[in-house]
Amino acid sequence: MLEPATLQIQRLDTFGGHRDSVFTLASSARAGHFFSAGADGQVADWNVARPDLGTLVAKIPASVYALTLDTESGFLWVGQNYEGIQFVDPVLKTSVGSLQLTTGAIFDIQIYQQTAFVALGDGVVVIVDVPTRVVRKHLKASAKSARCVAINPVEREFAVGYSDHQIRIFDLHSFDLKRTIGAATNSVFTVAYSPDFRHLLAGGRDAHLRSWDVEADYRPESDVVAHLYALNHLAYSPDGQWLTTVSMDKTIKLWEADSLRLRKVIDRARYGGHSTSINKVLWLSGTTFATASDDRTIAVWEVIG
């Protein structure tokens, strides 16, 4: 573990080109690349080494909150609000199909093996067979929005955070509801399992960062007031050493993943950070991560020890 005195954060670059808020980021199959999308409907492919050479791979006629890459087909699944999912070939920059799911918002898309889990604004989680793009099931566990999904293949479960302040745990294969966790005091915007799948973390509108012990029947572990305003997203580094949280309060926070000890606050004054709400964080490697903001930019950061 790095000592506090040696830990530094450096902004590597800022990526501009979006014409409105950037809501989501997604990994790419190409080393050093990632995707972004947001309120302008533009889906962009970025090269970390060349921030001036962003490529438009799709123009969606609606805001995009959810974006993920199906690594088997190489196609992007783009949550096109009010229209469903658009499937995009990022190499050929063409649409390869669509799936009408909803006339509302699509907040999250997670793919595990050959199944996609799509969280909708009407509270439904749609289960989609990835190869055929056929809907297998609709899970309606709340009248409020389903905001986020996390998969735990070890325990054969998945967690869904909702705007009714609840997190619900479902069986990964039968899709049965197994338990409900009700610690939050407002909408749950982000859920994630630790890389070893022993802990579940969540954050949301009440700005708290909470964790549960999965192996102890989701016993509560930590409850930290992490930000001044809504905690919009959290993500672990690939090696499991770091946890990043981003917030409506314009800050990025870097935590020791095991202890939830706060190590760095990255803001505009000290690090040239974002000027408005930060919506998403995506780890690109063991030491670099990207953040997306309402200020229309994406920043790439490096942890230096």
Structure description:
Strand 12 (124-129) and strand 13 form a beta hairpin. The N and C termini lie close together (9 Å). The chain has a 4-stranded antiparallel β-sheet, with no helix packed on it. Strands 2-3-4-5 form a 4-stranded antiparallel β-sheet, with no helix packed on it. With 305 residues, it is mainly beta. The radius of gyration is 18 Å and the shape is globular. The chain has one helix at 268-271, and strands spanning 8-16, 22-27, 33-38, 42-47, 50-59, 64-70, 75-80, 84-89, 94-99, 106-112, 115-120, 124-129, 134-140, 146-152, 157-162, 167-171, 177-181, 188-193, 199-204, 208-213, 219-225, 231-236, 242-247, 252-256, 261-266, 278-283, 288-293, 297-304. The mean pLDDT is 95. 1% of the residues lie in helices and 59% in strands. The chain has 1 helix and 28 strands.
Structural class: mainly beta
Which sheet architecture does the biggest sheet show? 4 strands, antiparallel
String of helices and strands: EEEEEEEEEEEEEEEEEEEEEEEEEHEEE
Q: How many H/I helices?
A: 1
Q: State the low-pLDDT regions, or none.
A: none
Strand content: over 45%
Strand order of the largest sheet: 1-28-27-26
Number of strands: 28
Give the proportion of residues in helices: under 10%
End-to-end C-alpha gap = 9 Å
Task: Give the C-alpha Rg.
Answer: 18 Å
The global form is globular
**Average pLDDT:** 95
